[in-house]
Amino acid sequence: MKKLIILSLAAVLLSISSCKKYLDIEPVGKVIPTTASDFRALLNTGYYGFPKHKALLALRTDEFFLKETSDDFSAVKEIYSWNDVNPDGLTAPFPYLAFYKSIFYANEVIVDIDAKAGVSAETAQIKGEAYLLRAYANFELLNLYAKVYNKATAVTDKGVPISTIIDLEQTYPQASVEAVYTQIFADLAAGQQLLNVEKWDAGLNYRFSKRAAQALAARIYEFRGEWDKALTAAQNVLQANNALEDLNAAGSLLPNNYTSKENIMSMEDVMDSRTSNVGVISDHLLGMYNQANDLRFPMYFGQSDGRYVSQKGNSSALKITFRNGEMYLIVAEAALQTGNKDLALQQLLALKAKRLKPAYFQTEKNRVSALSSADLLKEIYAERERELALEGHRWYDLKRYGQPELKHTVSGKEYTLLKNDPRYTIKFPKEALANNPNLQQ
Which long-range contacts (CB under 8 A, 24 or more apart) does 340-349 make? Predict the structure, then answer.
């Protein structure tokens, strides 16, 4: 892909607006970084510019229906009806170049920090984070614009272009899914060797740490169905800190709050004002909860104009990338997939105990403990839907777990996303095709 990042470094840096007051993220203020603090600021710009695509993805799922009186309705109605081929000009685009801008900043750090700022524990940490940010950006690009991972076809399935160097004249051909994963794993390994911060305090936890790198590894292996590796990585995360918010306790926080005891990393805006304004919680999602006894229900959802809306996002304090609740569910799923039903049950119940009223938990414990392995797997999927609601997971889970048929109604007309519909893979946006008309899916 010619000129993958069209703007020069200087032009990009000058175009970045000042950052919101959140988690001490400060965009870079210099064009040519030479010190560790300069490179930290450069990488912060990559963190800050990471796309807010998951807010749009949520509108393609069964978590929302649209409030058609909202001013934002016209920007998302085509996304909600899965009209990706010929959406009208008002439709909000899914990001593409924004990912490569974050990768661009990561590349600059990786290539230049040692020579310009020297080798130290501080520069090693920054460089390690850059590898992890690049890995995560490529992982998200794959999940948006490529087919779900299939070991048998990944070598030939079309992926996305890989950028690891800073050369505006370089051509960036579209790589296969497996080739992109090879790059992701190489970056993950390189980053983990360099990272020396186990965890960041709240306020700096938008950055990758050792625990966050392990959490990313757990999610990647889960998405690839490599259950032994997913289990090990998720257990490593929880070995360092397995705390969960106890929603039965006074003063408990939303689990996705960046100051929560179960927080691992808070970089992403998984909800935004547009989605919050136009999205009303679907009957399907509301029906997933025992509304009287599941303590997540009144914390996750509030009422506006007689309808339930999200209380989990559209706030700087509720940015989220990884947290312990997800890791418990990865351990449960991976354990069951590797034949350890007892561990799967143990992890699932440990999570439920912190989310349900005590009497109801005992009822749930008896019910879940009697499930067959097949039904327990379904219960783990259902718990993912409840626990991780509105945190950017649902579209990917639908895509990975059978690609079911969905129906949405817009202005009285019903639209259907068929089972295994090709639209489970997002179309490359116009900005991508303008730079590389040869992109294929």
Answer: 341/373, 341/376, 344/376, 344/380, 345/369, 345/376, 348/376, 348/379, 348/380, 348/383
CB 173 within 8 A of CB 153: no
Beta bridge partners of 417: 406
pLDDT tens-digit readout, 248-280: 999 999 999 999 999 999 999 999 999 999 999
Contacts of 112-117 with CB under 8 Å at 24 or more apart are 112/33, 112/39, 113/33, 113/36, 113/39, 116/33, 116/34, 116/35, 116/39, 117/33, 117/34, 117/35, 117/36, 117/38, 117/39
In whole angstroms, give the CA distance from residue 172 to residue 2. Answer: 6
Tokens encoding 186: 């190489």
* DSSP letter assigned to residue 46: H
Backbone angles phi, psi at 330, to 5 degrees: -65, -45
| The pairing of beta strand 301-304 with beta strand 322-323 | unpaired
Predicted TM-score (pTM) of the model is 0.93
CA distance 417 to 59: 13
How wide is the angle at C-alpha 312 spanned by C-alphas 136 and 87, nearest 5°? 65
CA distances for 252 relative to 246, 261, 295, angstroms = 6, 9, 11
Helices 227-240 + 210-224 axis angle, to 10: 160
Tens digits of per-residue pLDDT, 396-415? 999 999 999 999 999 999 99
